[in-house]
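Why do we care about 3D structure at all? Because function follows from shape, and shape follows, mostly, from sequence. That is the central idea of this module. The next example makes it concrete: a single protein chain, its amino acid sequence, and then its structure expressed as tokens.
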Amino acid sequence: MEILTVINARLHFVKVVPVSRAFAQTSAVTETLGYTGKHHDFAMSEQQFASIRLRSPDINLGINGGIPTDAVGRMLQALDAAVDGSVPGAVIVYGDTTSTLAGAINAAGRNVPVAHIEARLRSLNRSMPEERNRVLVVRLSSLLFVPTQTGVRNLAREGVANGVEMVGDVMLDAFLQ
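And the structure:
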């Protein structure tokens, strides 16, 4: 299965390591790593990739800066151009960033299943952009990988039960590796 993983921030770099390493150990999955380009200096990001032993992204969209709605629009266009008609079996997104939202919207718009890693705890404060991103991405996702039972309960309170899997904390997995 072809998987597109969308990441954008240093924390995503760390979180993707254990998942990407697991994919690399099987011939059943081919992962394309897509970096939206949040950090203005790609050389700095490359240093980060090397320091945690994460391979360089296959796709660098080069999107950084601007207001979130503008960034989402630019990311959607760039993702469409980057995948150039290919349809992965799933798109994986992490956390609650603008890139997470853009990756989920892009996948859902192409009828590609979204797997949300860290579909998790809620602040319940809708004035926070990250909370709005979380809520929207949950609704677009087919698979919701949750680190804790609290996250499972929060999703259930929102009426979300299908596709929810408690898998533990990917940050802990990265730390242990």
